[in-house]
Design goal:
By secondary structure, the protein is α/β, with parallel strands linked by helices. About 30% of the residues lie in helices and about 20% in strands. Helix 1 crosses helix 7 and helix 3 packs across helix 4.
Length: about 260
Amino acid sequence: MKPLIGISCCVKPFGIFGTPNHAASDSYVRVVLGPVGGIPVLLPAAGEAMAPEILPRLDGLILTGSRSNVCPDYYDGPPHAEGTPEDHARDATTLPLIRAAIAAGLPLLAICRGFQELNVALGGSLDQRIQDLPGRIDHSTPSDQRLPRVRVAKAHTVRLQPESPFARLAGGVVQLPVNSLHNQGVARLAPRLVAEGWAPDGTVEAVRVKDAPGFALGVQWHPEYDWERDAVSRRLFELFGRAAADWAAGRHLAQAAE
């Protein structure tokens, strides 16, 4: 059986009345159906109580990107600038979900906002607008997102730690070109995270959870946008998919033995 892959959702207004909807980009659904080789399961931003109920039913978890920022209350940061999008329902759902997934050994892949959530969930903090800091480059999304190339164009390189999981995925290459669509970034790295990739300005772009009992990696860029043309992005999802398939096989064996 194909593994069930949870995909974190945001709460977004929809329609002429701005009705709150739980939503995730189609790009995550397609990547799960594609190189991950799983069945996508959209996880609503339904709060902390969902984690113990849903995790035993999943074989992997993808933490998605989003336009919203993680609320600074979770890392004792200053208030966001006026107009900065937040998603309190998502924060209340994903942060405990991350901790529970890692404790269980459930395969976890964190992308962009999900990467930032991973850092905060494990005790790290964030810079809210990297582009405003001295000596840093602008990692943010251009205001006009109608051009498809905005999402897939390579914006800068990431220097990979030699012999790291990411360097092995890249075939030993230690300078990996990536897209870049974020404002927030790691300020204080969580104690349980190991940085394994950095942008030219020093921004942390790739991490692993050093003591995780299962697959637990995070990237600041967006491999879900270019896996059809970028071999490293595809291999990242294939590796995650194999971990999820192994988890699913073990889960079904355990259920059969009960």
